[in-house]
Amino acid sequence: MRNMKTRSATVFALLLLAAAEGCSPGEVTRYPVSGTVTMNGAPAGLTTVKFIPAGAGMEPTFGGSATADGTGAFRIGKPGENSGLPAGEYKVTFSQTVHQGKPVYGSGGKKSEPVPGKEAVPDAYRDAATTPVTATVSKTSTTFAFEIAAPK
């Protein structure tokens, strides 16, 4: 009986430790993703970057998005945590609203929401069906440099 109590306590302790670490059966491993966005060679600040799952067997909830800072840098997830994106293939879309020549927070690419200013990113880059940009996320591939070619 004492041996059974010891085993139960050990199993309970291991389950508690696994929960504290964020590990649970069936939880998908995620990797923090970061990078930069430029448009015609210049930093594309305040650009919304969306990773849309495109690989076989990937669930829609596997995607993610971020808004680039003033230098065009973005980050999805935090190192040391199980956050970010699962490994796999992604289509990447972009949206940047410009008002009076400067980037502003816009609609995040939603064509139905009017905001002051105009969309600076060509339509092809805004739609998952037409974007020429893809990314493969893996344990060793988590940093990306994206270049958007826009008419001047």
Question: Mind explaining what this structure looks like?
Answer:
With 152 residues, the protein is α+β, with helices and mostly antiparallel strands. It has one domain: Immunoglobulins (Immunoglobulin-like, Sandwich), CATH 2.60.40.10. Helix content is 16%, strand content 35%. The chain contains two helices and 13 strands; from the N terminus they run αβββββββββββαββ. It has helices at residues 2-21, 123-126; strands spanning 30-31, 33-39, 42-43, 48-53, 64-67, 73-76, 85-86, 88-95, 97-99, 102-104, 118-119, 134-137, 143-148. The strands form four sheets. Strands 2, 3, 6 and 13 form a four-stranded mixed β-sheet that branches. A hairpin with a 2-residue loop joins strand 2 (33-39) and strand 3. It is globular. The model is unreliable at 6-23 (pLDDT under 50).
Count of DSSP-assigned helices: 2
Classify the fold: give the CATH topology.
Immunoglobulin-like
CATH class type: Mainly Beta
Q: Would you tell me the overall average pLDDT?
A: 84
List low-pLDDT spans: 6-23
Tell me the distance between the termini: 79 Å
- Helix percentage: 10-25%
